[in-house]
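can u do me a favor
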């Protein structure tokens, strides 16, 4: 008989969504999870990445299993959309486990420590170790009372986004989008080419994104969620669902009278608010 590892469980039931385009793989994973984590509730199963995003939005699980390679929308792309939903809601980011037959992706994800992996076929022992780590993270989060203070799930959004950016390039090296060097933006009645290296921050509203340099304010018709995929995540950090800031342009981070973290930018007087989902970027403030 398989052994269920003795790990403290979070007080609330943990719910999960499974996404794999192979029915037999989904069935095997469900059966293995029932053995190593009987209390886990599988609330939905997806056959592709698009279904996974929809089901996560619908059920709000604490845990998502994503096959890396799925038709239409890969597991990595689905994870990126799930992460963006978390940012938009400023509170929700589940634990993510990638299901993969490709060690090169799995090893990097594991070493980064921001998500986990299970190799196909899902072996009982490996899955037990994975679920043990997840249960420990969820239990620590519950004990620390961090739900609502950071993204629910306690997962730092920036490291996850950086990892997903790298994995997307690995999955499709020939077609991976090149990071932007220039921004073609509207300035007054004209169009101006702005070097990305000169941009201090981007701020979006419902229709436009403002591109701000030390001397130029311009507008583009591209939302933050699309810019994220075209900018180097090591150079530009998302600090709010509507704000990207260049890391080297951050002069200081302070707190206002309401306790919110506020970024001061070199070369510009504007103050940028940090949302709760990204409060972990500036620990100790």
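np, heres the sequence
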């Amino acid at each position: 008989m398989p052994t269920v590892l003795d790990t403290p469980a979070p007080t609330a039931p943990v719910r999960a969504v499974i996404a794999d385009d192979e029915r037999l793989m989904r069935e095997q994973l469900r059966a293995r999870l029932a053995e190593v984590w009987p209390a886990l509730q599988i609330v939905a199963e997806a056959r592709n990445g698009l279904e996974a995003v929809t089901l996560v939005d619908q059920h709000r699980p604490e845990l998502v299993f994503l096959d890396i390679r799925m038709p239409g929308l890969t597991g990595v792309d689905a994870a990126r959309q799930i992460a963006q939903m978390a940012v938009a809601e400023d509170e929700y980011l589940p634990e993510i486990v990638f299901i993969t037959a490709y060690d090169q992706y799995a090893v990097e994800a594991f070493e980064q420590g921001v998500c986990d992996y299970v190799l196909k076929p899902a072996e009982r022992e490996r899955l037990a170790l994975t679920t043990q780590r997840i249960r420990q993270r969820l239990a620590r989060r519950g004990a620390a009372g961090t739900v609502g203070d950071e993204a629910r799930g306690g997962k730092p959004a920036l490291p996850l986004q950086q990892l997903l950016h790298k994995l997307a390039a690995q999955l499709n090296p020939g077609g991976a989008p090149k990071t932007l060097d220039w921004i073609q933006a509207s300035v007054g009645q004209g169009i101006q080419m702005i070097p990305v290296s000169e941009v201090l921050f981007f701020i979006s509203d419902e229709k436009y994104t403002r591109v701000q340099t030390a001397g130029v304010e311009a507008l583009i018709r591209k939302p933050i969620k699309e810019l994220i995929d075209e900018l180097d995540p090591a150079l530009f950090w998302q600090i709010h669902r509507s704000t990207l800031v260049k890391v080297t342009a951050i002069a200081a981070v302070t707190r206002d009278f309401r306790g919110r973290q506020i970024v001061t930018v070199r070369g510009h007087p504007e103050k940028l608010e940090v949302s709760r989902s990204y409060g972990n970027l500036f620990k100790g403030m």
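Residues 124-144 form the longest helix (21 residues). hope that helps!!
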